[in-house]
Automatic annotation (TrEMBL), chains A, B:
SUPFAM superfamilies: cAMP-binding domain-like, Winged helix' DNA-binding domain. The lineage of its organism: Bacteria, Pseudomonadati, Pseudomonadota, Gammaproteobacteria, Chromatiales. One of its GO terms (molecular function) is DNA-binding transcription factor activity. GO terms for cellular component: cytosol. Residues 164-238 form the HTH crp-type domain. This is Cyclic nucleotide-binding domain-containing protein.
Length: 247, 247
DNA sequence: CGAATTGTTGAAACTTCTCAATCCGGGTGG
DNA sequence: CCACCCGGATTGAGAAGTTTCAACAATTCG
């Protein structure tokens, strides 16, 4: 099944298992609700690429912007650096999510996109998508919507996060992760596997790795989470753990 | 002249004095380079509104999203708050800039937009803009471009700013302000009038008002700026003052 | 198994926050 | 015209949180 998706790489075929409207981030729902011909014309533009190994680059800062990408499977971190070399991680993206859209309207990508594990992506040549938008109003609407969604996402995570202490900032991150992975209010397995290092999470949250480590230890002592290698488990229900970071 | 712009409120007529491509933020260059008929069809959608007094609300969080707005004259702050009431300021916008675009694809605005001084705005009903985009590919491209620009803007200010100390964070803010107001590398008057309070700037930068005040005093002692009421002047050339926050 | 990376912990330094007092400037009203 | 008032801005001192630097443990990978 997963294999078929990769080979076929049709946006229309995938992602029927998630409700796009509730996702905080743009999902590759593009093409939902279109006619056969319309979704075919989208599918014909798409090129599948992969697999990328952990550490491999999908696009680089200096590369000319030509395409946006939908992650088919795996995960990706978006990073850049300050002039003095300080690394800066803009975000982590998972299967079903779009990357590269922050370069829309510019000539180059502003960041590097690096695979965190074995990753397959779909390339969507943006110029052609744009042309197609003229013919398919619904597609145009979806592109606009996902751009708006991305702006709102940044506001609700990074902007909001600035006002929170290290431990709450991590809980906000974790809450977002659970939502995006569809784990909110699930019974049974309440743990999430982290494809990125804790160090990367720290940088992404604007913290030193040591500070995050301490925050994690503190949250574990308080009995809110279990902190393991490449894995976090929340103990107790969402309400108990996340209430302090929910709106 | 300014009056004429207000009355006419044509996006095409205004903003011929600035180079859109170098603006870090979406400007109301919408409509540049279109045919007479095309720009007329845009102009016919536009409604001028104002004047808003300082403190008056242009749109509220709860309002249904219908329009984006171009600021004709004056300035606006975009704010919301955390659940505990902590105020949170997403940004300040000036004449020629667009607000409300972060609500695109959603049913409501996520923030309040409050005038900081006497302010005139142009309302652009978004549904109609969207329809027009189908007919005018160039307009579609411009809307996509400005949304991308907004994402990049947030990345280069708020995301980057998180990694900077209080005084550098302010310099980054100031540098952005000078760019947007077209004051970079001007000779002569090097001062900028602040329509917002220093307290608002502090919140926007993720600092306490006292912390910003200390940072300003420090920068003044170092001879980089002159700190006055509702006014900041940079002493020395852009290179000297802003180099530490430039990429 | 050893090397390299990642994660944790400790102690001291540093930055920012908090709370309180004071100052300043603009507006109001006598 | 001046005294008063009030919100914004500044300053001080101590508390709190984060960073830094250093050492070490745990994990992964060759």
């Amino acid at each position: 099944m997963a294999q078929q998706i990769k080979r076929n790489c049709s946006l229309h075929l995938v992602n029927t298992d998630r409700d796009c409207d509730t996702c905080p981030l743009p999902k590759k729902c593009i093409g939902d609700g279109l006619s056969k011909e319309q979704s075919d014309s989208i599918s014909s533009l798409i090129k599948s690429r992969g697999p990328f190994q952990a550490g491999e680059t999908i696009f680089r800062m200096e590369d000319p912007f030509k395409s946006i990408f939908a992650i088919q499977s795996g995960s990706v971190k978006i990073e850049s650096s300050l002039d003095d070399g300080t690394p800066l991680i803009h975000g982590f993206y998972f299967d079903g999510e779009l990357i590269g859209i922050e370069a829309i309207g510019d000539t180059r990508y502003q960041n590097d996109a690096v695979a965190l594990e074995n990753t397959w992506i779909c390339e969507l040549p943006f110029e052609q998508i744009e042309s197609l938008c003229i013919k398919i109003p619904k597609l145009q609407h979806e592109i606009l919507e996902l751009l708006g969604k991305r702006i709102r996402y940044t506001n609700s995570t990074i902007v909001r996060g600035r006002y929170l202490s290290a431990d709450k900032r991590f809980l906000l991150f974790l809450s977002d992760l659970y939502q995006r992975k569809g784990l909110v209010s699930t019974n049974g397995d309440r743990s999430v596997t982290l494809p990125m290092t804790k160090g990367d999470i720290a940088i992404h949250l604007g913290l030193r790795p040591e500070s995050l480590s301490r925050a994690l230890s503190k949250l574990q002592e308080e009995g809110l989470i279990r902190n393991r290698v490449r894995e976090i488990e929340i103990l107790g229900n969402d309400q108990e753990v996340f209430s302090c970071v929910w709106v």
